[in-house]
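User: Could you write out the 3D structure of this protein bound to 6-O-phosphono-alpha-D-glucopyranose? I've included everything you need below.
Assistant: Certainly. Input first, then the structure.
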Amino acid sequence: MQTSACIFDLDGVIVDTARFHFMAWKKLTDQLGIHFTEEDNERLKGVSRMASLEIILGIGNIKPDDCRKLEYAKLKNDWYIDYINKMTPDEILPGSLDFIYELRNANIRVAIGSASKNTPLILARVGILELFDAVADGNIISSAKPDPEVFLKAAEMVGIKPSDCVVFEDAIAGVKAALNAGMVCIGVGSSEVLTEAHYIIPGLKEMNLIKLRTIEKDIRS
Ligand code: G6P
Ligand code: MG
């Protein structure tokens, strides 16, 4: 059985937006007097905007009402958009484009499965919106990773059954979501963090079609 679709998480797999999330959350936490570090930011990877805010408020032991929470999330997102509006195609992570073109040439469907509501904006800013057969993102799902919804939605949009999909993910919650969807999951990042993934690579530069075929053969046999 061969892969018919590859589904890519966006943040941390195709582009490095974690630093912009950090800078924007940092502006908010500075205003609120919360001590927020880059280490804390690691906990927000793959986590939805409101769930991220809850984690941050927990760090500061602050309990605002729901209306205030929405205000904080909007403030953060406005700052975040300022950063991503300045992104250029140079910020696409090494190897991503070559691999995606290779997949497309082999007639393998390519899709995005991301929690981010800013997915369309980011893809447009770095000039790759047209590259994907489907984009499943935070705007069309109701349950965040580790729920499999976003990946199942992406599979449905490209018309491929979940067991024929391979997911590329950099976040623990995302790896769990892919496994919950019954898909093969290749972790992108550290093997110490992404322990549950079927296979781990440091970045998409380390991936090509021959390698993908070998990995999936091992996993699916
Ligand atoms: C991705 C990132 C998270 C972010 C989430 C929501 O999963 O890894 O850090 O919180 O998207 O992003 P958004 O752009 O909708 O605030
Ligand atoms: Mg990610």
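Residues 11, 21, 44-49, 52, 77, 114-118, 138, 171 surround 6-O-phosphono-alpha-D-glucopyranose (ligand 1) (CB under 6 Å).
User: Perfect, thank you.
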